Amino acid sequence: MKITKILGAASAAVVSAAVMAASAGAYEAFLMYASSDWSVQCMDATTENATTADVTGDGTYTVAISGFEWEDEETAEMVPATANGATVFCVDIDGLANALGCGKDADGYEGLETSAEKMALAQATGLTISDVVITATNSDGTSTDIAVDESKLYYGDIEGNGKIRLEIYNAYGETSKDAPIDPAGFSFDDTLSVTFTISGTGMGDAAVADDAADAATADAAAPADNAAASDGKGSPDTGVEGIAVVAGVAALAAGAVIVSKKRG
Length: 264
Prior knowledge:
By secondary structure, the chain is an alpha+beta fold. It has two domains: 1-25 and 205-264, no CATH class; 26-199. It is built from six helices and 15 strands. Strands 1, 2, 4, 9, 12 and 13 form a six-stranded antiparallel β-sheet that branches. Strands 3-5-15-10-11 form a five-stranded antiparallel β-sheet, with no helix packed on it. The chain is globular and about 60 Å long.
């Protein structure tokens, strides 16, 4: 059962709490890249070269890598490093496959062998990744959009680690057989970015969820503020108790969401 069905059957209070829970959850996306000779690479979201994005719902996100330098042998100065082509070029979204029920622990996943089969499982949950725009930018201010054939992209829990991977090119993966991009046809010495649109996350629209969460938080806090103003001691029977009830409902809704996703 999908989260939309749960929300449709819930009361208005639970719907509000579920929106709060969904918007509070974020799945970190980052760009995994290695140049054709591996001289420029970013394989970890925590490095200073990575610009990540928190996927909080359906929407458009951008991840990037930048700031690579090496030492000029003649001047001993640090200069921008030029990356040529790609050996590995993927976007990973941590934990999202497991949350959607199309990850390594999902029913039927164990028997899947190809990236196409794993993408089909992800698509069966309603997940879609589209409108992929790849931009290579140089330190002189010039930039180039890298042509990509979306029909050749793969996405899903390709590595069996609970992440959703958008495989743009991987010399060790199935995109090496019929590449969505020309892996040797680009270079950059400043920034490489990927913008993509994701839908079917079950969390609704990212911007709407954020607004709803802000409003719900403000509404929940108001009774406590009013209670404190009317009672110098801050009555334990008003305000705080109201927040606890809201928090409890939110936790219940979050639990329902998690269960629904695991059951697919």
